[in-house]
Amino acid sequence: MNQNLNTPAKAEYVSPRITKVGDFQTVTQAARTGGRLDAAFSASTPLSQITLS
C-alpha cells in the first residue's frame, strides 16, 4: 500500500447563514439616487465623473 502520510486533514464544511437586516423594500429604498445606472459608466470612468449622490 502506497499512502501519502503528509496529506493535511480536510477542513470541516460550515454552511453559510443568512441574517435578516430588515424589510427588502426598506433596505433598498436608498438605491434610487443618481440619474444613471452603473452600466452607463465604462470601466475606465474617473471617479470624479461618477454620480455618487
List the secondary-structure elements in sequence, H or E. H
Task: Specify the overall morphology.
Answer: elongated
Q: In DSSP terms, counting alpha (H) and pi (I) runs of 4 or more, how many helices?
A: 1
C-alpha termini separation: 66 Å
Radius of gyration: 23 Å
Helix content: under 10%
Largest sheet report: none
Overall mean pLDDT: 76
Low-confidence stretches: none
Number of DSSP E strands: 0
Structural class: little secondary structure
How much β-strand is present in the residues? under 5%
Description:
The protein has one helix spanning 24-28. With 53 residues, it is mostly loops. The longest helix is centred in the middle third of the chain and has 5 residues, at 24-28. It starts with 23 loop residues before the first helix and ends in a 25-residue tail after the last helix.
